[in-house]
Amino acid sequence: MALSAEEIATRSAQAMWARDDASKWLGAALDAVGPGTATMSMTVEKHHTNGHDICHGGFIFTLADSAFAFACNSYNQLVVAQHNVITFLAPGQLGDRLTAEAREVARAGRSGIYDVTVRNQAGKLIAEFRGASRTVEGRHFDENAG
C-alpha cells in the first residue's frame, strides 16, 4: 500500500531529525510537518543574544533555514539550499518563543521556492525568509521497506 503524502512528510522529517544535530543544538523543536510545509520553534536564551542584548540574527536565520529544510525535504527526496535571503523586521528578545512557519511557494523540476515567516509568541513579525532549493540524488527512507 502506498504511503500518503502526510506519511511521506512525517517519515522524511523523522529521518532528517535523527541526524539534525544543528537544530537540536540550537534548541529548536520540530512542531509540525506536511507536504511542502514545516513549523519549528525555539526559545531565545542568553547564549542566543548578541552585543545589543537581542537574539543574534544568525540564530533567527538558522531557525528559519531549518524550517525551510524540513519543508523542502518533505517529499522523500534529498534537497539542499541553493540560496537564501532573510529580512529582519523586529528583534527577538530574551525569553521570546520564536516560531518559523515554512510553506512551499513553487516547485519546478529540481528547483523550489519556500517562504518562512518568523514570529514571536505574541504574533509579532520578526523576520521573513525566502529559500531556493535544489533536489539532489537520494531518498530519506525506502518507501518499499516494511
TrEMBL record:
Signal peptide: none annotated. Gene3D superfamilies: Hotdog Thioesterase. InterPro entries: Acyl-CoA_thioesterase_PaaI, HotDog_dom_sf, PaaD, PAAI_dom, Thioestr_dom. One of its GO terms (molecular function) is acyl-CoA hydrolase activity. Residues 54-126 form the Thioesterase domain. It comes from the Bacteria. Keywords: Hydrolase. Transmembrane segments: none annotated. The keyword Hydrolase applies. Belongs to the thioesterase PaaI family. PANTHER family: ACYL-COENZYME A THIOESTERASE PAAI (PTHR42856:SF1). This is Hydroxyphenylacetyl-CoA thioesterase PaaI. It comes from Aquibium carbonis. The gene is paaI.
